[in-house]
Structure of Release factor glutamine methyltransferase:
Amino acid sequence: MLIREVLSEAKKQLATVNGDEHIARILLMDILQIESYQLWADLDTEMSDSDYQTFTAMLNRFVVNHEPVQYIVGFEYFCGRNLIVNEDVLIPRPETEELVYKVLETIDDYFEDYQALDVVDVGTGSGAIAVSVAAEEPRVHMWASDISEAAVAVAKRNAAEFAPGVEFLLGDMTTPFIEAGLKFDILLSNPPYIPDEETVDSLVKENEPHVALFGGNDGLRFYKQILSTASSLLKERSVLAFEIGFDQAERLVAVASEHFPDAIIRVLKDINGKDRMLFVYNNIELIGDADADA
């Protein structure tokens, strides 16, 4: 069967579950080990029986078993890297890439003269944030934690591939770092922030770990936990940076102000104009303030 025919057949199957045809393309590129431009160039190429059988089995995992395509192929593209993901970790989202890039900008703007920086990623999951920041900024000495041993195992595999210097601790949020007596220039986190009773897409709810999704009745449980303990982890001149739910900004500014009354607190919008990042600047004078909303 020609690749063109395989895609056409797959498109019809995907339509039965409202799946986009790009899923078929992702599966084919993974099986054939080619890039997207090669796939388009090879549409009239005959697909081997073995590759077709593999494709059919993988497509059925999505259509019939309702598995995320990222778990099927075993990776997600994030900040220019294919990061390993499986059912033990949350699939990294594009919105989180914006947090990574903003953190790297913050390092350039406010830590330019530092020879080295101590940074921590609390609740690291797949290690997407920790690995990406550490891989892009060689001055960073990165630490990361997660309460899930299985998640830490995945994060370590990603770090081994892209940022071998990342150090991991197993434990609940900030607890292992407090116990170790560590201090940081920057604290990062994308904690679980979906309210427990909020309706979630079935593909997400049925597959991704709930411990990485839900953040208590109001979705703020883990922010409160981190912010209430963060002062003992931070150096005098420091930054906290969070990804947040689009409707949580006002409430989180109030929580952050309670624990960091003298800090500058800013809410930053994502590319879609939604409030998606919260930054807390301790003893740092901001350069301009064009992105400020709070």
Remarks:
- The longest strand covers residues 234-243.
- The first helix runs from residue 3 to 15.
- The chain has two domains: 3-65, 88-282.
- Residues 88-282 form a domain with the Rossmann fold fold (CATH 3.40.50.150).
